[in-house]
Amino acid sequence: MEIEVLLKRMEALEQRIGKLENQNTLLKSGYKRLKKENTSLKDRLSFYENPKNSRNSSIPPSKDENRPKRNQSLRRPSGKKPGGQPGHKGKTLEMVENPDEVVDLRPDYCNGCGKSLKSVAPSDVKARQTVDLPVPKPIFTEYRTYAKTCTCGCKSRASFPESVGSPVSYGPRTESLIGYFHARQHIPFARMKEMFNDVFGLKISEGGIHYLLKRFSRKTKPAYQEIKKRIATSPIIGADETGVRVNGDKDWFWTWQNPKLTYIVHSDNRGSATIEREFPDGFPGSILIRDGWRAQAATVAAHHQLCLAHVQRRLNYLNEKYSSASLGKDFSELFKSSLKLEKQDRNKEKYRTDRVGVVQKMEQLLEHPPEKKQKELYSFYKRMGRERQNLFTFLFIGDVPPDNNGSERAVRHIKVKQKISGQFKLGVTAQNFAQIRSVIDTTIKNGQNVLAALSLIAKLEAKLDKPFQNVPLFPVQKQIDVPIESVPISGH
Fold first, then answer.
1. Of 13, 106, 208, 227, which residue is 20 to 30 A from 188 by alpha carbon distance?
2. Contact between residue 237 and residue 286 where contact means Cβ atoms under 8 Å apart
3. How far is CA 15 from each of CA 1, 5, 10, 211, 424, rounded to the nearest angstrom?
4. Which of 179, 478, 489, 215 lies closest to 363, judged by CA?
5. Would you say residue 300 has pLDDT above 70?
6. pLDDT for the residue 52
């Protein structure tokens, strides 16, 4: 009996061993397959972690990843044909009445028989003109001071102008051109040196350019301070910030602007400290147009307007990711209808009724949250709840834009400058750029000639510390035409 039991156990064990061997064979096969798949996935992951682009391969920039799709623009077709519209006046070169030089061209011989025409009086005059630039060359101005002796025996000598502090120095035109090339045309110092040498015939070093730029920046300070002062009391202000490289570190440029003024400042942080440093009281009498950055959202203001362009771009992404959800699509339609309403006549009763309807529609949408598993869409829903008071300010207060595009345009030049020059070497040079650029943008917004304005500033004495008065750079500010108390907290 014991032998039979042992034989049965041995047979069972052999069967079990056979099954385990089969399982082991399958596991080995699966291991090889998974190992091969893991290697393939690692290769694919490395491709996405280190993609080829226009910066590390011969791929053109048009093929770079994360470029916006052509159908994602927030602009809608106007139905008009491209190009100039009917009634548009074209512009072309026009002849001047009194040219600087006249070249007379007379025929000396007949084109038919070859007879001399020198004694024949000309007639039937036709004219054409060319326009060109003169060859620029440096102008050297010598200042001579003389001494005179009084009858009392005292000898008096005239003083040199403050700007003439050395035997040979550069004048205000050169100084203003350097500021113009640096902050308006974004020309690096090396290329600026080449331009002065080759185009203007003026020898100047990169160190000389840096010194003149620093001196010119000091002269722009009164205008810069006046811009800041007027921005602080402006009825409508747009705010934004953008990153910039300073000596290898990431710093920030901040801007506060309105349709007539632009104030830009360099800072080493993106937090509320910069706002408290520049505008410690905030903007208690102003409407602040901003994006969703928390430091901007916490700024004291009479009221806020959230940039709808940012929100709509976010909705484009959410509607693609959560195509089955209706909340994102409903908000998109709500914002489109509000922007369409903004172009209507505000004095009509229908406009006032429709704008209240927009706010009520928003309240209805916020009563139906999406599923929490749709994390990004749910976060957007909660954000709209927090910002509900700041979405449609533009419908209730005149002159308030629905987007922050003005501030985006103000910081765009900073990114262009960085693309060309790579970075700023020092924080003080970054601030100099911000200061000069603020004056330039303000000049452009007020329809003034940029170089003429910079030339006017360059002629000022470097020690001038009084604010500008009665300068066309700074117009009288327009007040808002609707009291801020008219903005509703809800749709009621």
1. 227
2. yes
3. 21, 15, 9, 93, 78
4. 489
5. yes
6. 67
